[in-house]
Write the structure tokens for this entry.
Amino acid sequence: MTFGRVLFFMLLTLFLSATPGPSLHAAQLRLECPEVIGIGLPFVVRVESDEPLDRLRVEWAGKTLNVPGAGKTTVEFLLGTDVLKSRPGTETLRILKLGLSPLAVQTSILIEQRDFPEQRLTVPTEMASPPAAVRERIARENAEVRSVLGAVSPVNHLVLPLMRPVPGEVSSAYGLKRFFNDMERNPHRGLDLRAALGDPVRAAAPGQIVLAADHYYGGRSVFLDHGLGVFTVYMHLDEIKVRQGDMVEAGEILGLAGQTGRVTGPHLHLGLYVLDLAMDPAALFFAKQSQ
């Protein structure tokens, strides 16, 4: 064998040993979510991985959510938009898998405008334009609510579909353009359900009571934390039957329906918040999603 051929085979051997062969398994993240969502609606995000997930970093609408993977290969969580805080247009959803083998996946979601009807209500003057004497109270209560709804607990108690807290029909839908005594106010960012005075109000899903208080606008209210930034809120109660810190199951009685706060009659105001964005709870009553 000539020197040239020996040198050729030596170089070929070095090249093959230094060049990795074809990968037998390339880890991937797969993302399932809607391509289009109406403004004010929640939606479920599903992330699948070829490898067990440790933790996900979710970036959506200027907010960040850390989702524990708990060693699973599939994770689901809730996101959405707000009729007041969100705008029509394209929004990017980005998911990062953190840990020893970081991965990323992203998609664009089109937020579509929806048309909402008007609702005109007549309320006592002090409710439409609160007197100066109670403005400090309102500001203090608003700060308390923002602090509660801005928190993100790292557990996920949410079970879908949501259970209706009272059997009554919708009396005021989400997104209504509201006028109090002919003065325009923020759109309705919850769902009013018909209920008689004293009707039991039940938890829409499992969670922890993080606030039970009497507020100027909401009256006697209960805030239920379902984890990962998801809350349901029950307002205008006649009586509260739970205490802050209690863990409750879906269907457990939280209180009795009433007409406390700014109301024109007894009913339940049900709010749904995800990362402090108010969404339409009705969209999740009959959603068919696995947990």
